[in-house]
Amino acid sequence: MFAGMASCIGLDAAAQDRPSGPALRNLPDGLENEDLIAYVHRIAGGWDVDWYRRVLGAANEYKEGDEILGVSARTPAERQLARRLLEQTTLEQIDSHRPFEDKMHSVLGLAQSKTQTQEIQTWKLVELKAFLLEQSEQEIHAIRPGLSSDSIACVVKLMSNQELIEVGRKVFNPLPGTQLGSQGYMGARIQPNSPTDHPDDIRWQVFNAFAYAVGDVLVGTNPVSSEPDSVALVESTLKEILDTFGISSTIPHCVLAHIDIQAALELSQPGSTALWFQSIAGSDAANATFDVTVDKLLQHAKNKQGKFGLYLETGQGADFTNGHGFGTDMLIHESRKYGLARSLSQTLALSMQQRGESSEPWVHLNDVAGFIGPEVFRNREQLVRCCLEDIVMGKLHGLMIGLDICTTLHMDVTLDDLGWCIDQIMPANPGYLMALPTRIDPMLGYLTTGYHDHVRIREKFGYRVND
After folding, report:
1. Rg of the chain taking only CA atoms, in angstroms
2. What is the pLDDT of residues 378-436, one digit of tens each?
3. Burial of 127 (0-12, 13-18, 19+ CB in 10 A)
4. Pairing state between β 400-405 and 308-314
5. Buried/exposed code over 300-323 (b: 16+ C-beta within 10 A; e: otherwise)
6. Rounded CA gap, 128 and 396, in Å?
7. The CATH number of 21-168 is which of 2.60.60.30, 3.60.20.10, 1.10.287.130, 1.10.220.70?
8. Which one-letter DSSP state was computed for residue 430?
C-alpha cells in the first residue's frame, strides 16, 4: 500500500513524461510477417527507441495511464497492428532492444537462467503464447527461468482475458512447506489497519478475521506513523496475538514501514519482526521515490534471516505518476518489478544456504491493483484486465503472487462492481487476497476485499485455506 500512497502524490510529476515525437503520430501500416524491430527500422529510417516504445504500448489493452504517456493505441486497428508486429518478434530481439536501461535492468538479467534463455531465444512471441496455452505446468516451469521480464510483459500483451485465465489457473509457485499459492487454494493477508495505530483496534480486527478462518498468509498492518517506537508497538501487538494462539511459526506478521526501519528494529530487538515489507518499482529512478536502491534491497535480502523472508508490493502506474515513466508503458514497468522480486528471492535463498539455514525462505508479492486512481485506469473492466495481467506475469517470474483488488472513491467502480471484479478474476487462482472487516479500509479509506468475500469465494469456487 506504501507504493500506492507514494504514487498518489504525483500526477504533476507525470508531466515529465508528456507525449512527444512518435507519440503524437499514427502508426504507419506494417508489411506482411514483419516483426517489430524491422518495422521500426523501416518507418524511422534506423533504430528509434521512441517508435519502439510507441508500438509496445499500442499492443496493450487501453488504460488511461498509457494514454497519458502517449503510447496507447488510438484505434483498435492500431492495437491489432502492434500485436501482429509483436507476434513475429523473437525473444532474443525483445531482450536485445530495451525500451530503457538502468542498473536495475542489468540486475534482472542476472536472475535469468542462461541455459533456458538460449534454448528459447529464437522463439517468436506468438510461439511462446501458444506454448503457454497448450503445454503443461511442468513444461512451462522448465522454460520459465529463461524468460526475461520484458518478454513476459510482451507475451501478456498478446493474450485475451480468457487466455490469461487459462495460464493463471495452471501455473503455481507455492510458498515452501505450505499449500499457500497452490492450485485450488486461496489465502489471505489480514490487513488490520487503525487510524491511530491503536493496539485494541488492531487486535479486534485480527480476532474478527480468525472467526472467518481468514489470515493464513500474513497478518500485516499499514502503520499511520513510521516512527520506530510506534512501529515497534504495532509489531509487538501482532506478534503477541500470534504467540498467544501458538501460530507464530505458521503465520508471519509484518508492519508495512520502510524496510530500513524494520531491519533496524530487528537488530535492536531480535525476533520482533517476521516478514520484511518493501514497495518496489520498475526502475532505479522510481525506486528512489521509495528511498531504496537495488543495492540496498539486495543487501537487506542477504541479511534477512529465518524462513519468513520478504513481502513486496507493486502496482501498475506507480512509476509514471511519480515522473519516471521513461515513455514506456505500464506493463513493462510492472513486469520489471516482478523481475526485481525474482532477483531478491534468489539472493535471499542463496544467502540462507551459505549460512547453513535449512529452511527455504518465504518471498511473496502483493499486486495493489487500482489504488492510485483514474489516472491509471478508471473502470471495472480495466481493473479485471490489470489483475489478470499481473497474475500471469507474477507466476511466470516464479513468484507466489497475491492481489489487492481495490478501487478508490474517485474511480467509476462501486462496491457492487468490486464484487463482480472478484468473480471475474478468481478463476485465474491468485495466491491470496486482502482481508478486512468490511470492504472499506478504516485508515486508508479505499475499497478492497472483506472477510465475507473470502467465505463467499471459497464456497463459489471451491478454494481452500492452507492445510
Report:
1. 21
2. 999 999 999 999 999 999 999 999 999 999 988 989 999 999 999 999 999 999 999 99
3. middle
4. unpaired
5. bbeebebbbbbbbbbbbbbbbbbb
6. 12
7. 1.10.220.70
8. -
Give SS3 for 91: helix
**CA–CA distance from 153 to each of 414, 418, 431, 467 (Å)?**
29, 25, 20, 33
Pairing state between β 276-279 and 308-314 = parallel
pLDDT band at 2 (very low <50, low <70, confident <90, very high): very low
Residue with cell 490469461: 164
Report yes or no: 391 and 167 within 8 Å, Cβ to Cβ. Answer: no
What angle (nearest 5°) sits at the alpha carbon of residue 458, between those of residues 1 and 411?
40
Quote the pTM value.
0.95
Instruction: Name the CATH code of domain 187-461 (choices 3.20.20.70, 1.10.3470.10, 2.40.37.20, 1.20.58.2140).
Output: 3.20.20.70
Cell of 200: 485494541
Determine the 3-state secondary structure of 26 from DSSP.
coil
Contact 316, 386 (CB under 8 A): yes
Torsion 346-352-356-357 (CA) sign? negative
